Amino acid sequence: MTSSDEASLRERIVEVCKRIHARGWLASTDGNVSVRLDDDRILATPTAIHKGFMSADDVIVVDRQGRKLQGTRQPSSELRMHLAAYEERPDVRAVVHAHPTFCIVLSLAGVSLAKCLLPETVLTFGSIPTTAYSTPTTEEVPDEIRKWVRTFDAMVLDRHGSLTVGTDLYDAYNKLERMEHVAEITYRARMLGPLQPLSCDQVTHLQNVARGLGLPERKLLDSPCETCTVCKTDAPAQRKPALAPQTPVVAASVLSAPSDELIQRVTKAMQRALEPGGDRSR
After folding, report:
1. Domains in the chain: how many in total?
2. pTM for the complete prediction?
3. 62 has which bridge partners?
4. Distance between CA atoms of 232 and 222, rounded to whole angstroms?
5. Residue 88 maps to which CATH number?
6. Element housing 176 (H / E)
7. How far is it, in rounded angstroms, from Cα 54 to Cα 17?
């Protein structure tokens, strides 16, 4: 790779970081971005730098073990999750770790994005898994990343943020943007009521369409949520009707065949309560 190619990648890293910060998916020194220069070297954002105000000269070069080869700043402790992605996926050329708002909000609420709700998600991601909680800056994070990045290009890091990988930097960024959009739609739709996943037939048809378009195979999780059986059986999904929030469940026998005497007593009580100065105590 020529020096001009490296200079171009440095500028792209700065551009993407500023885009992410402008969208509110990074605050201050949060997050990190990396791009593979070649088989042995990686361009990466350093630790302790505001991603909205960094320059191309701030970007550092590290080897595949995370040792700094070039630059005045130091590598981030979170670089290890990037190295794990590169090690597990030779096709990955760029990694973006951010703190997108709705992805984190849903993970705090225990809401998974793995449910098959939107056709675009099935076509482009398959499932969007949420990793198990792992302590930031420790080896727990790359160890957990390895379990998912072998199969998935985008994932929510429980209580922490997101990780997306791509064939180039813009590909990894686009997946972040698309995933956060799905998270926001999911959040807003849940405010209106229970969500209905796509049916098994609809998901199967989408997968067939993807094959026809030559899109890569996207894996669906075996059991993304307790109400969706799309990924667990070939039969059409059978879903239990969801109750509205705080809807009281009343035994059927209580409501069946009220007596004439009961109806008359309730009617008289309502009439008394509605009369001016009426007795509402009885």
Report:
1. 1
2. 0.79
3. 42, 68
4. 6
5. 3.40.225.10
6. helix 169-192
7. 8
Instruction: At 255, list the tokens.
Output: 């409501």
Q: Give the whole-angstrom CA distance, residue 122 versus residue 209.
A: 11
> Mapping DSSP to helix (H, G, I), strand (E, B) and coil, where does residue 160 land?
coil
In a domain, 259, yes or no: no
CA torsion through residues 262, 264, 268, 274, sign: positive
Contact indicator for 54, 17 with CB cutoff of 8 Å: yes
CA–CA distance, 282 with 112 (Å, rounded to integer): 50
Closest CA to 147 of 192, 81, 200: 81
Length of the chain: 282
Phi-psi region of 151 (alpha: psi -120 to 50; beta: other; left: phi over 0): alpha
Is 270 within the bounds of a domain?
no
Q: Which helix (H) or strand (E) holds 70?
A: strand 68-70
pLDDT tens across the length of the chain (282 residues) = 677 899 999 999 999 999 999 999 999 999 999 999 999 999 999 999 999 999 999 999 999 999 999 999 999 999 999 999 999 999 999 999 999 999 999 999 999 999 999 999 999 999 999 999 999 889 999 999 999 999 999 999 999 999 999 999 999 999 999 999 999 999 999 999 999 999 999 999 999 999 999 999 899 986 444 445 445 443 333 333 333 333 333 333 333 444 566 556 655 655 665 555 555 444
Dmax over Cα atoms in the chain, in whole Å? 93
Residue 222 is encoded by which pair of tokens?
A: 């075996």
- Structural domain that includes position 74: 3-212
In a domain, 252, yes or no: no
Three-state SS for 148?
Answer: helix
Residues 102, 105, 107, 110, CA torsion sign: negative
In a domain, 272, yes or no: no
Structure tokens at 101: 């708002």
